[in-house]
Specification:
alpha/beta; Arc Repressor Mutant, subunit A; Rossmann fold; 2 domains; seven-stranded mixed sheet; two-stranded antiparallel ribbon; 9 strands
Length: 360
């Protein structure tokens, strides 16, 4: 029996429609989060003091009528709080941390910036569905690159130096003494610069396929004052240079392996560029090995990103394995093992990230 011919459960239908309406409101409101972030509306409310629409418009040099409508939407969605008695709006400390404090561990507007760019790729992704071709990372809107940096960077800042590196065997001591590090798929350089700031005796090389990101990464290193020990070059993970006869003491991949067309080839090349006692640190979304394990809000978000960006990016490259953003630990281990690594362990994890340590 077809679904259309079966008996409709009225209560179940109402639950579904309420769910869909909630998602529709969220989808339409995503653009307003980007606008609020871009125009500084959230930042102007950061202190938590109640403001009228007119006052906020004055602070941000925007139009009060538009601001009133924006605030109303944000209050309806729970992103901004409303005091009906005084007709004022304010951010709670939690709302401020998430929406108004760029760099906080839970800062979220960067993710909305990514989502805005992803939606603009709808026609191209639909074509990829029909014809099976890929869509290169470089073919997306600029907001995707900046948004990814703003979304992932705070998480790296919160955990990379304080938790992830200490969880690796003997790596922190090497970095403190002076080591050579390669950061693959470095993007705008957030992870590379963080490590360089924390370990002033070590040298770092960041590699990425995207020339514009490499240029931005170099600027980030200059702004942080670490450019004498940090270099960025355009190169893919299967071809980046070894960096001296001794090889790298540490190679890192932060949320980049699942974008690669040939992750097995990348793992094999990493093995060739590592020092004999070197380490690969792989950071990927902390997904379960089964689809059923990932049917939750986090999995939903990552499967969406994987469908719109990660899988098409992999399919646009040689091999086009298309691991996907929810590959899971078992599949990641299979890739690393196929690339020649023999010693693998889960070094640590967060609710959102899995950190694997791989050695020859």
């Amino acid at each position: 029996m077809h679904a259309a011919e079966s008996t409709i459960d009225a209560e179940e239908l109402e639950r579904l429609m309420n769910h869909l309406l909630g998602d529709l409101g969220a989808a339409m409101s995503a653009a307003l989060v980007v606008i609020g972030d871009r125009l500084g509306l959230y930042r102007a409310m950061r202190d938590g003091d109640p403001v009228t629409a007119e006052r906020l418009a004055c602070r941000t040099q925007t139009d009060a009528r538009y601001v009133r409508e924006w605030l109303s939407n944000q209050a309806a969605g729970g992103y901004v709080s409303y005091d009906p008695e005084h007709d004022t709006f304010f951010l709670t400390p939690e709302q401020s941390l998430a929406l108004a404090q760029d760099g906080s561990p839970v800062f979220i507007p960067g993710a909305f910036q990514c989502a805005s760019a992803m939606v603009k790729a709808t026609d191209r992704v639909a074509s990829a569905f029909e014809h099976g071709h890929g869509i290169g990372w470089h073919e997306h809107e600029h907001d995707l690159y900046c948004g990814t940096d703003r979304f992932l960077g705070p998480g790296y800042a919160a955990s990379l130096v304080s938790s992830w590196i200490p969880a690796l065997d003997d790596v922190q001591a090497k970095l403190e003494a002076g080591a050579r590090v390669a950061d693959l798929g470095c993007g705008h350089g957030a992870s590379t610069v963080l490590m360089a700031q924390a370990f002033p005796r070590s040298e770092f090389a960041g590699f990425d396929r995207h020339p514009q990101s490499v240029m931005r990464a170099q600027l980030a290193a200059e702004e942080a004052g670490v450019d004498e020990r940090v270099t960025f070059k355009v190169a893919c993970a299967t071809e980046y240079p070894r960096g001296g006869t001794a090889g790298y003491d540490l190679v890192t991949m932060f949320d980049s392996l699942h974008y690669m067309g040939d992750p097995v080839g990348a793992a094999a090349h990493v093995l060739q560029t590592l020092a004999p006692d070197g380490t690969l640190m792989l950071v990927e979304p902390n997904a379960g090995d089964r689809l059923a394990d990932n049917l939750n809000p986090v999995g939903r978000m990552f499967y969406a990103a994987s469908t719109l960006v990660c899988t098409p990016a992999s399919r646009a490259q040689d091999v086009g394995l298309a691991l996907g953003a929810q590959a899971g630990e078992r599949r990641l281990r299979e890739v690393l093992t196929a690339g020649g690594f023999t010693h693998l362990r889960r070094a640590t994890e967060t609710p959102f990230k899995l950190i694997l340590e791989a050695r020859p």
